[in-house]
Amino acid sequence: xxxxxxxxxxxxxxxxxxxxxxxxxxxxxxxxxxxxxxxxxxxxxxxxxxxxxxxxxxxxxxxxxxxxxxxxxxxxxxxxxxxxxxxxxxxxxxxxxxxxxxxxxxxxxxxxxxxxxxxxxxxxxxxxxxxxxxxxxxxxxxxxxxxxxxxxxxxxxxxxxxxxxxxxxxxxxxxxxxxxxxxxxxxxxxxxxxxxxxxxxxxxxxxxxxxxxxxxxxxxxxxxxxxxxxxxxxxxxxxxxxxxxxxxxxxxx
Length: 253
What we know:
Residues 19-53 form the LRRNT domain. InterPro entries: Leu-rich_rpt (IPR001611), Leu-rich_rpt_typical-subtyp (IPR003591), LRR_dom_sf (IPR032675), LRRNT (IPR000372). This is Leucine-rich repeat-containing protein 3-like. Residues 1-16 form the signal peptide. The chain is an alpha/beta fold. The chain contains 6 helices and 9 strands. It has helices spanning 3-16, 137-145, 150-153, 171-176, 181-228, 234-252, and strands at residues 32-34, 53-55, 63-64, 77-79, 87-88, 102-104, 125-127, 133-135, 158-161. It has a 5-stranded parallel beta sheet with strand order 1-2-4-6-7, with no helix packed on it. Helix 2 (137-145) runs antiparallel to helix 5. The protein is elongated.
């Protein structure tokens, strides 16, 4: 074998080899990558592209950034349970293939999430239980957008909610009994707008009253000033009368 052939073989071997993340285990041949209990704070960037099952559970991951799993088109299961995940970027799951069937986000710190990260994962089973969910319109819309039936969403418990009487109840139960968080939110918005208009109206009325009273005070001060001006004496008026009579007599003569 020539030197060039050996060199090309080595290059091909290096490009064909997919490394395993430093803190993970990647047993050859089964497509499973184990990264559980590794004190990871971020998702490794060098996960092999032939991974079929990825365990990232029981770490310290707080956020899932855009494209964190790009290139994992063969991934069937993604386990992210028991982390500290509080937020998920809209493009967090871009790049995953159509073979993904399970996304486990249970046991995290999720309170509110958008439907955007999951809009292309409508066929995926989501595990969302054991999160401190705040039940409101956005969570209800997420459930609707992903067509989460009672079997998939029955463990979504309202740790907090728009109204206190809903705390401790499951979201599917509330929705099935006719609770509509989006209507409640609209009512709250309408009330806020009404309150704002009332405050502005009160401010305008207060200004008009202040303006009128200020003008009245200015008028009173002006009147008092006019009254305080000295009045011409009677002798001066008598002299003016004599002058006028003299002028009249001269005119007649």
